[in-house]
Known about the structure:
Elements: H1 14-22, E1 27-31, E2 37-40, H2 42-48, H3 52-55, H4 60-64, H5 72-84, E3 88-95, E4 102-113, E5 119-128, H6 130-144, H7 154-165, E6 172-177, E7 196-204, E8 219-221, H8 227-234, E9 238-240, H9 245-257, H10 262-267, E10 268-278, E11 281-291, H11 299-336, E12 363-371, E13 377-387, H12 389-407, H13 412-428, E14 444-451
Antiparallel strand pairs: 1-2, 1-5, 3-4, 4-5, 6-7, 6-11, 7-8, 9-10, 10-11, 12-13, 13-14
Helix pairs in contact: 7-11, 11-12, 12-13
Amino acid sequence: xxxxxxxxxxxxxxxxxxDAVRQASLSMSVLDPELRFVHVxxxxxxxxxxxxxxxxxxxxxxxxxxxxxxxxxxLHHLRVAADRGRPVQYESYAPAPAGSCLHAWTVEIWPVHxxxxxxxxxxxxxxESTEQHxxxxxxxxxxxxxxxxxxxxxxxxxxxxxxxxxxxFAGFASVDLLDWVLGxxxxxxxxxxxxxLRRVAxxxxxxGFPTPAVHLGGQEIHPSDxxxxxxxxxxxxxxxxxxxxxxxxxxRTREAETPHNRPFREAVCSTLSVPLRARGTTLGVVLxxxxxxxxxxxxEDAVLAEELVSRAAASMDNARRFARERxxxxxxxxxxxxxxxxxxxxxxxAHRYLPSASAAGIGGDWxxxxxxxxxxxxLVVGDVVGHGIPSTATMGRLCTAVRTLADVDLxxxxxxxxxxxxxxxxxxxxxxxxxxxxxxxxxATCLYAVYDPVS
Length: 455
């Protein structure tokens, strides 16, 4: 036999050792030097999907020939133990021979020698570490999520989120947003049952398969009872898959729209519809679909997806708010600048105003042409330090002040002295950002010239 025990009084009987090995939760096998099975325990039989009688005496390579995956790497490690007499460890993530879902395995392989040192067998014990593998994958995804939202751009953030999900978490993923998110309007309430969304990003693990039902930038209209619409309406993750009535109806609708994607739909084993929510506002929905041989999504996957999507949603909302503030600042700024300059008797005025495309936003720059008495003309160019609405508001105050001071016909040096006093008062009063700003943080530059055609 292949089992032996030390001849110790009161030691365990061979039958006890045999029962322990046979009932072990690990897959344990013994092969001869030619890699033919000479022993398998119950777990190994379940993993191989065959009874012991069909395995014993049979070559391992023959038993693996009918299963998915490439067994060459595994057989190579076995040959290292058989030919070189060295123990090795082998890790894999592949379907079990008796199943179709992916599993992680840690396999210990070691040579067995007799008393004379001759190699008589190769033993192996396989421990399934699928849960640990998935936990590591989830942690790696969370770490990688820090790269999502690298720019203040809604669409780019959606693309980064899809790139994170595919292929590590999903075989296909898409991001659909409500139309107002892509503009600078206030958040709109989501109409009950509304499935009208705008596709901004999608990707699949296999290029070109499936073909998305809607092109980027196109309108996606989901049925009111579909998982994505339920996720938007209820504000929670919806885990769905074949057998769920809503999912099956949704797939039949998709079948009519894109019949060429039927092979993909038949392979889908699970989907997650995750609402994009930030600061209590729903922005859209993320769809992640998983296909065989990967395992269907579980509750812990839904929690992970919610965390990943919430981070992206916060970045999208920041980008949306930034775009809205920039648009508001630009509108205020243009409203304060001169539009139709009155014709001047003694001077022709040409002007161009082009704000720089700064990541910090619109600044507080302005110009003006002010008619004065005696055909004279005041020419003004100014710039408030900073960006955004606060600097634009300060720009409006200074622009008005210069016009007021120019109307009383102050010479340039006196005008700028009064303007400098105004800036100091504004800084002391915290008017720049609503309080808490030191005076040194508020500053402005201003050029004021008077053109006199007589002199």
